[in-house]
Amino acid sequence: MSIRDYIAGIEDELVTLRRDLHRIPEVGLHLPDTQARVLAALAGLPLEITLGRQVSSIVAVLRGTAPGDGERPVVLLRGDMDALPVAELTQEPFASTNGNMHACGHDLHMALLVGAVRALCAHRDQLAGDVIFQFQPGEEGVDGCRYMLEEGLLDAAGRRPDAAWAIHVWSAMDPCGVFSTKLGTVMASSDEFRVKVLGRGGHGSAPHRAADPVAPMAQMITATHELVTRRFDIFDPVVVTVGHVRAGTAHNVIPEYAEFHGTFRAFSDEARNRVAELLPALFTGIAEAHGVDVTFERVEQYPVTVNDEAATREVAAVVAELFGEQRHVRWEHPLSAAEDFSRILQAAPGSFIGLSACPPELDPASAPMNHSAHARFDDRVVADGATLLAELAARRLAPVAE
């Protein structure tokens, strides 16, 4: 039985798993209920399973039993597990009611990875190498991948992966069932910054007797936009966004301090490093001009996500063979969102793959996007996503013909 036929036979079970997981979304690095449900789905399979010590991760290793010469290749497949602190508004019959939501589709990621696990276990006699399955918490902004790397993810099979793939579903953008790839940079880096402007408080009627931190803070925020347009190449852009601002307690009081937090994103390491250098210099200059002090803190988050060209072309070829060329699109531009699968792709050649789960009755151009409380995902794509991951691994680990 082919991998595709095997997965077709368990499709209903995978959809049930996806909906069970959708009902119990958990946020962050500690996902006990989610971890338990995934472990139940893996029970009885010929896997070497390791649970995270710091976080609720699962690493499962499958040892292929086909004979092979020389060093056995290793493939890594990733599925993230965490949800978002979003109250669901989809009205789905299996909607979450606990105040959290799988608004980014990670419930589908877990279900399709479980499908790939089961298919590859059933075909392990055709694998002349090993597979690492990475079930990861904390992708949504808390760098769960870093914790897994610290705990030895890449060496779980005894040697580092030769290839790595991950699928991410979208609730919009492309028609349902379409896979998307991009050569090279596919997603931006992301870093947080926190700025505190330290002034000297006083009466609102006498700003000359105080050192107002609010005016320089406003100028700093505005100046970030000018920095982007005047100091960076438009063909290697950066995105700076201030999302949190706080100052003062009353309308007629000049506060002691003001603060704002934001993010900056870039599509190359060079631009990322440059914005990290220029922002504090910009804020220091404005602070000095206003006679106040300023502190700048950078919180490094995710690197640029860069797809390997060969591994990405491999995805397009396998999609065309399995599902037809119309089921694959090549993105022209990267997304300015960020992903911690970037850390895996720094260590192994691989590809971050998109898969549209936009419900067919919705227009992909206007459907609610990932992270929306209204985002809906068609779980009929789970079987195809599982098939693609399993086929990519199986083909890379197939015995070499003599």
Walk me through this protein's architecture.
- With 402 residues, the chain is α/β, with parallel strands linked by helices.
- It folds into 2 domains: 3-186 and 304-397, Zn peptidases (Aminopeptidase, 3-Layer(aba) Sandwich), CATH 3.40.630.10; 189-302, Alpha-Beta Plaits.
- Helices cover 33% and strands 24% of the residues.
- It is built from 10 helices and 16 strands.
- The strands form 4 sheets. An 8-stranded mixed sheet has the order 1-2-4-3-5-16-6-15, with helices on both faces. Strands 10-12-8-13 form a 4-stranded antiparallel sheet, with helices on one face. Strands 7-14 form a two-stranded antiparallel ribbon.
- Helix 4 packs across helix 10 (382-396).
- 45% of the residues are buried.
Write down the CATH topology of the largest domain: Aminopeptidase
Mean pLDDT across all residues, rounded? Answer: 96
Gyration radius (Cα, Å) is 24 Å
Question: Shape from CA axes?
Answer: elongated
Terminal-residue CA separation: 24 Å
What portion of the residues fall into strands of 2 or more residues? 15-25%
Number of domains: 2
Describe the sheet with the most strands: 8 strands, mixed
Any idea of the CATH class of the largest domain? Alpha Beta
In what order do the strands lie side by side in the largest sheet?
Answer: 1-2-4-3-5-16-6-15
Low-confidence stretches: none
CATH architecture annotation of the largest domain: 3-Layer(aba) Sandwich
What's the order of the H and E elements?
Answer: HHHEEEHEHEEEEEHEEEHEEHEHEH
Q: Could you say which structural class the secondary elements and strand pairing correspond to? A: alpha/beta
What portion of residues is helical?
Answer: 25-40%
Number of helices: 10
The CATH homologous superfamily of the largest domain is named Zn peptidases
